[in-house]
Predict the structure.
Amino acid sequence: MWKNFPLFPDKATELAGEVDQLTFVFLAIALFFSLLVATLVVYFAIRYRRRSEGQIGEVEETGIWLEIVWSAIPLVILLGMFFWGAKIYIKAYRPPSDAVEYFVTGKQWMWKFQHPEGNREINHLHVPVGQRIRLTMTSEDVIHSFFVPAFRVKADVLPGRYTSIWFEANKTGTFTLFCAEFCGAEHSQMLGSIIVMEPQDYEQWLAQGQPEKGVISSGEALFSKYVCNTCHYPDSAARAPILHGIWGEEVVLGDGESVVVDANYVRESILEPTAKLVKGYQPLMPTYQGQVSEEELVQLISYVRSLTSGTAESQDSTAVGDSNESEGQ
Amino acid sequence: MSAEATTNLPRRVNYLNVDHGVKSWLLTKDHKRIAILYLVSISFFFAIGGLMASLIRLELATPAGDLVQADVYNRLFTAHGVIMIFLFLIPSIPAVLGNFLIPIMIGAKDLAFPKLNLASWYVYNLGAALMMWALLRGGADTGWTFYTPYSSMYANSEVILTALGAFIVGFSSIMTGLNFIVTIHRMRAPGLTWFRLPLFVWAHYATSLIQVLGTPVVAIAILLVAAERLLHIGIFDPAVGGDPVLFQHLFWFYSHPAVYIMILPSMGVMSELVTAFSRKRIFGYRFVAFSSLAIAVLGFLVWGHHLFVSSQSILAGVIFSVLTMLVAVPSAVKVFNWTATLYKGSISWETPMLYAIGYVGLFVIGGLTGTMLATLGFDIHVHDTYFVVAHFHYIMVGGAVMGYLGGLHFWWPKITGRLYPAFWSKISALLIFVGFNLTFFPQFVVGYLGMPRRYHAYPEEFQVLNVLSSAGATVLAVGYILPTIYFIWSMRYGERAGANPWGAYGLEWQIPSPPPTHNFEEKPVVTTEAYDYYTLKEKRVA
């Protein structure tokens, strides 16, 4: 029990250093105020202890300035900490445009991963060091939460939609992945590991188990398998919206509302085509609910995104924050 | 006051001996007797909730899940949370001390609606009975937060019964709140203006507003979960267009303010203790009074900080973060005013004051770690870890329970007419303080290390801190068992207390202990500010 007894978590991203810095400064502030109050309370309690039975305290006027000062000082400090914390939060939840997208599916009680090259893993995720990696995540059942303490990142993994988080590991090694949102009987066994490797080792690892197709070409194959291409072909304007060049664009719906084309919208349009129908089109498309697996969904979505060349990554907005805002929920 | 003197005293009629028999208690409309009924009920449930906590700490003494099965463990922490929050913390100070003291503190004979008050106790027990029935059938395994879609579609346990119990208990809370609001508005003694009210009453007024406005929302959320389980209406099911995160919004819209339902009354107790044992008017009366209202109002605007990592938009996260920071200010104002009250006071180190001093320390740590959690960049890492568990136990146990015990030690002589042994009560206060810190401080560290909450088994590197925590829980348990023993002992063998054993200011100390059924022989007229020890002394000298 005394072996391997850390008091501070491992650090494997730049973000981890930034979070720790915030923590240390905040701890110093907390320590200062705790000691200040504790010292004053104990000092007063001893210095002004009751010396005779009938003794009462001295009459004292409320000091209005004192009240203002001790309201203002905490307020100013807390607002400062708020801005600092918000800066880190925005960084953590806004994946950079050059991040490589990996896919995560949580289910009771395991983590399934899919690499852009098509490799799949369960409970282990191999990634190269020094590469910005963005995880697009969804759940097949209840809410889970993707938490890697060494990276200081966490995001809930929800059924029925995508959330995302990103990281850039700056050292190699194996780091524990926890499920942080209670998800049922084996919640505490829903562990995994992120294995950070040197780029050449990663390439080698990938080559060993590489499937024939990457995520996008698998999506292309599915596009024909599910006969999406019979309506959504390049000059299909009459029957179905053209998918080329629409990723990240705003489209107007039948009811006059508009929506940005992102992973969550494409997902919804596959599973529930009539929910947000683009203006001018008939509700002809059948639902694919129950026919397409979560893995196939991300392949299809990746393919649709690839049809909008160049702007795909930068316009993308499946990040935790953006997707909500764009849907106006 | 020796035992000999007490036996020779003529028997005075008070609320305890005015009537005898079970019926006289179960059908009583006396707010003081209803307070005792509540005291018995919540003490029973505190013991059960505590037993669950002991089993949890025992399981966590080793990294492997070896004492109970995972599924049993999940039912244990769910029962611990549900019982401690709905059956102990929410009713604790308001339904026991508030019920007993508010009419007396404002110079009234009873609460505005005595029958409603008794009804609230029955409703509470009905809800509690449902929860206990659910527990005997195996209990729920969702955590006290009932998150969907786990609770609505996947959990295979007594979710509906447990939730229905919480739903019903909620109504008792609304009844109590309503009763307090009307009583405080309508039944104050002549001369007792709002700004002459004891701060205990202000704190309960603010608490009551939250109870009345917030509880219906959680009732709706709970009903929707039950409807989803029974009828599958789909409101939280994404497969048919529902939104599982909607539940979290509805739930925390009540349950965050509910935290203030639990902590505000204890702040009211603190203001009474600090002034009574400093024999001094509180520093910044109006600031302390209004800070209770500010906390109650702002408390309704911060629920989103429970959803910082739940897919809430970045903008919403930022707004909820800054609003949460604002709540910290009125809380800090209270702490500074209590501290300033001690300055040039006449401070005695009696047991209730030990609780008050301990409270300040623990509440400051709980509050400061709360502002850390409100800081977005920090929260991403510690959200849903033991850091959060430690934080809310510092507030709920270090704050609310310490305040409740401090208050119980302060007013016990008034309630029972007897004193408890000073030595043992000081020992137990010390044990609780030390045991509490040993239990929960290591959890801050293990949380920052990354140990998620609600884990039945955990990686080995977290063991040392968990063993410390379990050891602390043992000390804490002894600290809680001691008062149970000496309080019961004191009811028969304790020294007679007299009307005002602490030499404290306040209407409750001007009537006999235990008080007569109608509290006051004649309607009191209030001519002084609250905690006016100076005038009180002048009068005595004159």
In short: The two ends of chain A are 48 Å apart (CA to CA). Chain A has two domains: 9-43+62-210, 215-327. The longest strand of chain A covers residues 100-107.
